[in-house]
Amino acid sequence: MTQTGTPMESTVGPGAWHDPGALRTLRILHRSGKLAAEYRAVPDLLSRMPQADLPAAGQLLSRLDPTEVRRHAPDVPVVSVAVTGHSTVAPVVAPLTAELARHGLLLEPKVAPYGAYVQDLMRPSDEALPQLTLCLLDAYTVFDDVTVPWRAEDVEAAARAKLSLLAGAVRAHQEAGRGLLVLNTVPLLRRFTHQLVDLRSRARLGAVWREFNRGLLSLADQHPSVVTVDLDPPVGEGVPACEPRTAQYARARLSDPLLAAYAREAAHVVRARLGRTRKVLVLDLDGTLWGGVLGEAGPQGIELGAGLRGEAFQDFQRTVRQLGSQGVLLAVSSKNDDDLVREVLKGHPAMVLREDDFVRVNANWKAKHDNVRDIADRLGLGLDSFVFVDDSLFECGLVAERLPDVAVVPVDEEPALHPSALLADGWFDLFELTEADLERAGRYRTEALRQEFREDVGSYQDYLEGLGIEVILRPPDESELARVSQLTLRTNQFHLATERLQVPQVADWTAHPGRHVIAVRARDRFGDHGLIGALFLRREGELLRIDNFVLSCRVFSRGIESACVAAVLDFARSTGARAVTGRYLPSPRNSAFASFYADHGFAVLGGDGDDPDAVHFRHDLATVAPAPAHLRLDAAFGPFDAATDGHGDKR
Fold it and tell me: At the top level of CATH, which class does the domain 77-273 belong to?
């Protein structure tokens, strides 16, 4: 079996390389009892499976024992999900299993009894907390509280009461520290609207319902660890909201197609939670951003702007530019003459995207996968941050084969479908857009100037000394907590403990006695890097612990990480600590930094009974190396209560 994706994540968009035999292969594996042992091959099978086959695949996969899968594939991330709701919620398990498996994840579900959602949300925290709670709502969430005969005003009263109850339950869930919660807006069914025979009352009911959904959406604004999936888009595109027979007889009040659409969105939330949000969109040109072949038709002969197809290509460019305006880095990998491409990007009157919108344009006759790798090297980003879009199935297949970490999105010859293909998998979804996201493209363009400077100087040390790096360590202010959280959610390589923290968890660290969050900022002669790292410190008597250290990959190997360690050691000694410990928790993507603490003078302690998966290191502070001489360090950690134990209690 040829696998185009990594064992960790499916890398091909939905509907690509349709293989009617993929489901048959999955069934053979299931019947032979080998599906658990071959789980690493599942993402590739699902990526080649027609969309219509995914529900059947989900049914097969949902029968797997997660324990058995983990025995054969211990490196596959397990996602524990509690599923609750107003009506029967078990039907969402199969599509959610399939959607998570598409991204190389294994679902471990816990399904609540019928109608238990309020109790589930309000019960106290327990030891076995799921990573995610799904609370499925439907129209009967309100209408079960409405008696016949009813008017729009009766529905309004029931909706307000239910929203108040939900708001209290959500608040209890979040205050108990029970993690990420996903809600959904509720489609209004025709079977209810048309029980009102006068059009004015029917319109009033529509307004009441939209206000109810607005309240559900606003819960996500009130609680950073709450996400509300809006079901209006799939219903608006023709997905049926309800199947009357299953709604009546099985109390399953959302249709199977709508649950499948919901499961896809929920899987995107999980992927964002695990730090798998992509950062770079690499685009082909001919047949992707415009119609025709530039080398044959010339700049004025390509399809763009004029005609139905030309307008469709232009609309796709608007979609791409909208993504770029929110921090997605845009780049080009195209087999074309560079001068012709630059001419189009600079001067074609119908181009929406211009040369300045791209952080890198690789237009040449090299293999596209080599161009993508070059872009990654120049940006200093891992290939697992990349999405590649092309209209050629050959090129898509080659990139997927040679660069399995890259997410590949094939588009066909119909440009009107390009936006849907690009957006189908939410590759760039994140929890909150920050100032750092909006400034990202400019900072990576500045990085190109650093690259040019590097090529002009003799040695790497000369390069470092010429940069004039300044590192600033300070506690983050409230407006920066979202950026610190985002670093923990999205950084995978230099993330020594790989702990994903939402904004409330970061805020708790900053407020907890005996603990500190230290934000890392940096700038140099070419510009400001912004907030690019964070240290999570905890004081236990005479011991200072570095519980986690995360640093953006774009500033590796410039001495910034060493300066941070030097500052922590110096701070520890100045506040009376006798030692500093560092914690490294292995993950599939941070192995390059397994020896980081040892390389900075820490002795290996091994495991810890309370933290058996981590490796611990200790520095006795007898000799503290200074920060690298080529940079300037400005560190101010703020007040730190040395007379506390690790729980914030006075000693």
Answer: alpha beta
